[in-house]
Fold this sequence. Notes:
The complex is a heterodimer of chains A (130) and B (129). With 130 residues, chain A is an all-alpha fold. Helix content of chain A is 78%, strand content 0%. Chain A has five helices and no strands. The longest helix of chain A has 32 residues, at 94-125. Chain A starts with 5 loop residues before the first helix and ends in a 5-residue tail after the last helix. The longest helix of chain B is centred in the first third of the chain and has 32 residues, at 17-48.
Amino acid sequence: MSLRSPLGKVLGRGSAKQGVSHWWAQRVTAIALIPLTLWFAFQLVHLPTANYDEVRAWVASGLNPVWLMLFIGAVAWHSALGVQVVIEDYIPKKGAKVTALLASTFLHVVVAVAGSYAVLRIAFTTFSAG
Amino acid sequence: MRQRPLSPHIGVYKFAYTMATSIAHRATGIVLSVGLLALAGWLIAAASGPESYAIAVAILGGAFGQLLLAGWLVAFSYHLFNGLRHLNWDLGRGLEKPEARRSAAIVVVATVLLAAAFIYVAFFAGVPR
């Protein structure tokens, strides 16, 4: 029987932060991205041209704005989680590491919001037959 | 606080090609993260008007842009198949060394096939860009 307290046993044994939620969110977004990326790839391939009117009509058509925003959101979330791990593993200096993590988080949120806003703006200003 | 031992870094292991599939998963992930910037930029350009969109098409439609597109198609194909390999591991399956080597080979073959199909459709199947 050990006389060490439970706290004493775990102190200094490493992170007790958001490891599980990070791991789980990475898997949830990975699974969501399997159908979403394949949908996106097939949509792009079936665009007859990539000209301005064609692309806007496609973005605005049917439920495409919903799928596009889900796609952008899932990619941005999955990317933020992945880039976070790479930064944590390869930038040893604490100051540089925290700066890079902050920059990555901000950039991912900006990209997700700006990309979704672009989709909504196209959807609400384009009149398509879809 | 006492310095605890850390796990040894990759430099101490004899090279096995399954290591290359691991680092390639990270590398393709970073490549695809850059692709997310391009995707957002493309949509923002399309939302901003014909002039902005013409600039985006000039960049993405140029030689360098086309090279990037091909790179994203290859990176996506690999990250998809190796990601499925990781999800299978998460279920506790295929973790033995011979199985991991075999799944690595399957990932490489599947990547080549899907990437070739993407590149054929995107660049050679007569889809005007």
